[in-house]
Write a structure and sequence with these properties.
Blueprint: H1 8-36, H2 59-77, H3 83-88, H4 91-104, H5 108-116, H6 123-126, H7 135-160, H8 164-170, H9 175-178, H10 183-205, H11 209-229, H12 235-277
Helix pairs in contact: 1-2, 1-4, 4-5, 5-7, 7-10, 7-12, 10-11, 11-12
Pathway: Secondary metabolite biosynthesis; terpenoid biosynthesis
Pfam family, one: UbiA
Membrane topology: Multi-pass membrane protein
């Protein structure tokens, strides 16, 4: 896209708000999930000691706390341009429906991906770019959103392997149960889709070589290494890769994005200096 590169201070400030909002809304999503699953969690070894499941917190208190989390998330949202409010509202439907998905489909991770990835649709409006009026931005946001959905399904499939035996007994559905025999093949396919769509998002946004080499290349290498090394029959190993794998891959993508941004910002600054001299 030919739009001017956003200033570093704006990028840092927007990133900080996004991080805070994501942290708060992820917590709210977990609270809603625990409320829905308060009768299922006691049947799963890993979740049976969660506060609601073990009776340490009543559903009413948990609901009240969830309301506080949602209000805090609204406070963060209102720091962005007003249009972001309308872009963000549909995500609440996904937040509320994810816990129900595991009861009716073997692919609740896909619904989780639709939920957790919604921030990809918020980045452009947060910087004042109207997606409905900018085809390139809408295309980039769409590819980025789809890429994040694939990534979420990938790492949550590893997560689901921790509870695979208890889930089968409790009647909880998951992609790990459905594809237990070919999990690594499914993970590999998801990784190809995620990196491919990430590259498509960079192409639509006019990203440079640093993004494709550092971000996309780094994502491909880290995901490939994780898929090869993770022991799906070992709960502790699945947990380690679930927690750390997303940071490792996310770090590679962030480095690629950051490097590309700095190079483009530097080039734009040099161009402005040349014009000023003329």
């Amino acid at each position: 896209m030919a739009d001017p590169v956003t200033s570093p201070l704006t990028v840092i400030g927007t990133t900080a708000l996004f991080f805070s909002g994501a942290l708060i809304m992820r917590g709210a999503g977990c609270s809603i999930n625990d409320l829905w699953d308060r009768n299922l969690d006691p049947q799963v070894a890993r979740t049976r000691l969660r506060p609601i499941a073990r009776g340490a917190i009543t559903p009413f208190k948990a609901l009240t706390f969830t309301g506080v989390q949602l209000l805090a998330g609204l406070g963060i949202l209102l720091q962005f341009p007003w249009s972001c409010f309308f872009y963000a509202t549909p995500s609440l439907l996904f937040v509320a429906s994810y816990p129900l998905a595991k009861r009716v489909t073997y692919y609740p991770q896909f619904v989780l991906g639709l939920t957790f990835s919604w921030g990809a649709m918020m980045g452009f409006p947060a910087l004042g770019v109207d997606l409905l009026a900018n085809t390139a931005a809408l295309t980039a946001a769409g590819f980025l959103y789809a890429s994040n959905v694939a990534w979420t399904v990938l790492y949550d499939m590893i997560y689901a392997h921790m509870d695979i035996r208890d889930d089968a007994k409790a009647g909880i559905k998951s992609i790990a149960l459905k594809h237990d025999a070919e999990t690594k093949q499914v993970l590999s396919g998801l990784a190809v889709v995620q990196v491919g769509l990430l590259g498509a998002a960079g192409w639509a946004a006019g990203a440079g070589p640093a993004f494709f080499v550092g971000g996309c290349g780094g994502a491909a290498l880290t995901l490939g290494y994780m898929i090869r090394k993770v022991n799906l029959k070992n709960v502790k190993d699945c947990w380690w890769w679930f927690v750390n794998g997303c940071w490792i891959t996310g770090g590679a993508i962030t480095v690629g994005l950051g490097a590309d941004y700095l190079l483009q910002h530097s080039k734009e600054s040099d161009d402005h200096e040349k014009i000023a001299r003329v």
